[in-house]
Amino acid sequence: MRPKKNPQLDLRKNSLLYFMVGMTFILLLTFLALEWKTFDPKSDWDIGQLDPNLLPDEEVPITFQKLPEPPKPKIQTPPKIEIADDEDDIVEPVIEPDDTNQDTPVAEVDDIKVEEEEIDEEIPIISVENVPIFPGCEGETTEKGKRDCFQEMMKKHIRKNFRYPEVAQEMGLQGRVDIRFTIEKNGDIGNIKFRGPHETLENEATRIISKLPTMTPGKQGGKQVKVTYTLPITFKLN
């Protein structure tokens, strides 16, 4: 039977040779691509490449500065000494001693006046010797009784005068207002300070404290002093 293809035209005959030639060509192109180098154009006027040793020497101009003249020393005139004649009588001042002696009279204790030190600082109510007396607590005889009565009357005053602001209720405001005030030397309320979550609640707490009655002032060392008191007022919606 006669073959359909010409054996001389079979490409598979030299396929290994063709493969080796192709691989060699590809490797050559890859090597040339990796070894290919390019350079930036070089300028003949590149200042950074100049040799500093070839530059001309710069001559620094010589300048002359005139220094101020030093101050002249001050010559003090020596004191003039006058020589008195031997016949002149010179009266020298007599310096009397001011030291005490046995003849110096001793002052009596009753004659010595001691200035009383005025206590002007504010004393917390827990540290004052005699607490302020709230109206209605005059019957208490002990300091503990006066303190307990003061606390109880403060609670009654807050409950009696407490009003929840309508604006605060509509806005849903609530929280605690820390308020601090001073019971002055004349028993009046002053120097009110406060801190709370909202201005509306702070104003209401200030209004309650401002309605406190005049009290009997506190005492320290037998003298009337300013007494500070701090308490919280809580606003809570039901």
UniProtKB/TrEMBL annotation:
Domain (TonB C-terminal): residue spans on this chain: 149-238
Task: Classify the main location.
Answer: membrane
Query: Which Pfam family, any one, appears in the UniProt record?
Result: TonB_C
GO biological processes: protein transport; siderophore transport; transmembrane transport
Membrane-topology descriptor: Single-pass membrane protein
**Annotated GO MF terms:** energy transducer activity
The UniProt keyword set, sorted, is: Cell inner membrane, Cell membrane, Membrane, Protein transport, Transmembrane, Transmembrane helix, Transport
- Any keyword Nucleotide-binding? no
Record-linked InterPro entries: TonB (IPR003538), TonB-dependent_transducer (IPR051045), TonB/TolA_C (IPR006260), TonB_C (IPR037682)
- Compartment(s) of residence: Cell inner membrane
Question: Which stretches are transmembrane?
Answer: 16-34
> Which family is annotated?
Belongs to the TonB family.
Could you identify this protein by its name?
Outer membrane transport energization protein TonB (TC 2.C.1.1.1)
